[in-house]
Structures are given as structure tokens and as C-alpha cells.
Amino acid sequence: MAPRPDFSLDTLTHDLARRAPPGPLWLAFSGGLDSTVLLHLLARAGLDARLTVAHVDHGLHPDSAAWADHCRRQATALGLAFHGERVVVARAGGLEAGARTARYQALAARAGGATLITAHHRDDQAETLLLRLLRGAGVAGLAAIREHGDWRGLPLWRPLLAVPREALRALAEQGGWPWLEDPSNRDPTLDRNYLRATVLPALAARWPAAPAQLARAAARQAEAADLLAERAAEDAAALGAAPDRLPLTVTALSAARRRNLLRWWLVEAGAGAPGQARLAEIEALLAAPADRAARVEWGGWQLRRFAGQLYLLSRADLAPLDRERVWPPGAGAPTLGAWRLVPDGKDTAGATGARPAVWRPKDAGPLRLVPAAGGERLYRNGCHQRVSELWRAAGVPPWRRAQWPLVYEGETLCCVPGVGVADAWRDRPLEAWALMANRDRD
How far apart are CA 9 and CA 167, in angstroms? Predict the structure, then answer.
């Protein structure tokens, strides 16, 4: 028989001190039972010098200001730094989800460079797994709550996932640590509250180890999800995928591997995990005859097919170049909406490599970066050539033709990105630049 877990104050304190990530720490402190216990554990673990206690007042209850004051006093009594903030909660999409988003947005804006600690525990894990089972989640969803994660780049640490709620209550009562009770936690119309008050107690009455076993199942699903992510990364590399495009040869994979890769690719790009219905739309797009107008749209994202690739585009990626810019010599290039110019010497991909090349004479004065209006011609190889035909021959996607600037010297078109320069520049020493999407890094 496995030894009974030790959830004593000394054991948990030592465990937190040993496992704490380096650098500044911020505790998301609601004043409730769970975060109150975690507050005292962190203070006892010797982490106080790098810990900030943060409370977000959602303004959803008449007593919320008093709760915020309680949290401030609890942190101050322990000699801990405190940050309090009131937010406005968007109610579209559900009050609970809106409060969570507002809370994390506020904390992410203030806790730059820190790890955010939350007090999720074993019972939360069991509840989350059951909720996701009932919603038909896949393997990644059934991994439920992970000890380490991130929210839009903000590192998260949840050190109490193995600890049951009853153990936390015992510690709070033993220590005489006051905590707040949010009346909304007793509202049986909320799914999580119903599971907590009705379903889980019934399961535990019949199967006492149910919460622990559900948490164990979530951990196994997390391991399976990691394995699927590794497989997807391998498939992406083998296909030559990029963050914004996926070769249509993905259709050669088995259906299960293809769907696994699509999910992983979209999540990695920040577009979120697609549900079953959206995956079916994407599969239909992959199977459709070549048609540049075919697309799948959701939120601020689009998927389009072009020249053997499936492109993932955000709203910003699709924004056209709105106006002419001046490109002075000897200075950094101006911003270009969804794109920017980078010197070839600072870009390992090179202006003549995977990114579209832009050139300028070393002896040139100010140049003009002009949005394409249609009908422009570049005088090259002794004749005028339509820019639209040059871009089509170079495989430039239609939406990018409205984003990339044409380079003029005075009134003369002298460079077309991704194509080349006019005859007038052929005999002049040139500097190589490249267009880089703002979503990419130098």
C-alpha cells in the first residue's frame, strides 16, 4: 500500500521552497480559503522577499471593496508587498469567463517578468476534468489544469494541485488564518458549483478515492497530450511548416495525424485550439479545388489556400498598407503596417533568402514607399512589365500585394519587393533589405 500523502504545514512549506521557480513571484490572492493558505505557505517558505500579493477587484459584489481591503491587510500583516486593482468585467461570453479574462489581463500587465502563482488544488483538478469530459474535450482538454503553464506569455505556477481542499481547510483552521467566503461559490446554477456541491460528494461517497483518481487521470492525459504535441512538431518539421503557413501536403498524413497537426499548429500560432466543427471546415478547405477565394474565418483569424500552402492570417496580417511613407537614407526604415524592413546584415535569413528582398542604392536620397494601386509597371530588362504579373510569377499571395510597398525614387518605380530592381538601379551599388512580418522576430 502506498504511504498516505503528508499535507502537514512543514512538509508543504519545505516543498514550496524547493520547487519555487526563480525570479519575482506574484500571488493571485482572492482572500478565499485556497489562496489564503497559499499566502501563508509562501511567506513561511522564505519567498517573501520576491513575492508580491495581488488582488483584483472585479466589482461584481457589493462587498468587493471590503474584500480588497481584507486582502491588503492580510498581505501587510505578513510584511509582503501588495498590489490591488479594480477592473471592468465584460459580460459577453459569460460573467465567469469575463471575470477570469479581466483578472489575467490586469495581472499580466503588471507582473511583467514575474511568475504568477495560483491556488488551484486537487479538487479543482477533479472538477475541471469532469467539466471537460461533459463538454467532449479531447486529450489536451482532459489534461485539465497543469502545474506549469502560461497565459499570453505570463508564466503560471500552480503548486497545490496535489493537495485536497480538506487539507487546506485543516491548515487554515489550525493556523487561525481568516478567509473570505464568496456567496457566488454557493450558487448551484453554476456548473462548477453543482459539481462541487452535488456530484463530487456523491462520487466520493461511493468511491472515496474518486477525486485523487480523477486528478491522476488528468496527469496521464497531460502526458499523452505532450506526446501528441511532440508528434505534431515532428510532422510540421518534416513538411516544412512555418508559423503562418502549412504545406497542403499535410493531406498525405493519416486523418488522425493531420487533425493532430492542425490543432497543434493553430495553438502554437496563438489562434487557439479548433473545435470539431471548425476542424471539419478546415478539412473541407484542404480538400477543396484550388480557389484563392476559399477561406475559413473565425474571430480575428483566417485560413486561406494559395500556391500549395495553407496560410494562417490574423486581422493585422491582412491590413493593407494605408499610406505612402518616406524612407530617408542612413536611418531606420519606417513601419509598414503588418510588415517592417530590416537590413540584410541584421537578418540571418538574408534579404535574398526566404524573406522578400528590397533594395536601395547606397547613394540614394529619400525614397518613397508607396502602396500598390494597380496598373504600375517596372522598367526592367529593357521593357515595361506589369507589377501584378511580376508578383503573380513570383508567387506572392494576393493579400500581400496590398501590403508590400513599391519603392520609388522621385516619380520612378525602381524596386518591387520580392521581384527586383529597375534597369535604372542596376549599375548603382545597392543595400540589401528584407521585408519581415511583424509577427516574426529578428
Answer: 10
Q: What is the dihedral of CA 418, 421, 427, 429, to 10 degrees?
A: -50
Burial (CB count <10 Å: 0-12, 13-18, 19+), residue 291: exposed
| Strand ranges for 118-240 from DSSP E | 148-151, 154-157
* Residue 34 labeled ligand binder: yes
Per-residue pLDDT of the chain (442 residues), as tens digits, is 556 788 999 999 999 999 999 999 999 999 999 999 999 999 999 999 999 999 999 988 899 999 999 999 999 999 999 999 999 988 777 788 888 999 999 999 999 889 999 999 999 999 999 999 999 999 999 999 999 999 988 999 999 999 999 999 999 999 999 999 988 888 888 899 999 999 999 999 999 999 999 999 999 999 999 999 999 999 999 999 999 999 999 999 999 999 999 999 999 999 999 999 999 999 999 998 876 568 899 989 999 999 899 999 988 888 889 899 999 987 677 788 888 888 875 433 333 335 688 999 999 999 999 999 989 999 999 999 999 999 999 989 988 999 999 999 999 999 999 999 999 999 999 999 988 887 664 4
Query: Rounded to an integer, what distance in angstroms lies between the CA atom of residue 361 and that of residue 167?
Result: 72
CA distance 400 to 416: 12
107 appears as a binding residue in the annotation: no
- Does 31 belong to an annotated binding site? yes
33 labeled binding residue? yes
Q: pTM, whole model, 2 decimals?
A: 0.81
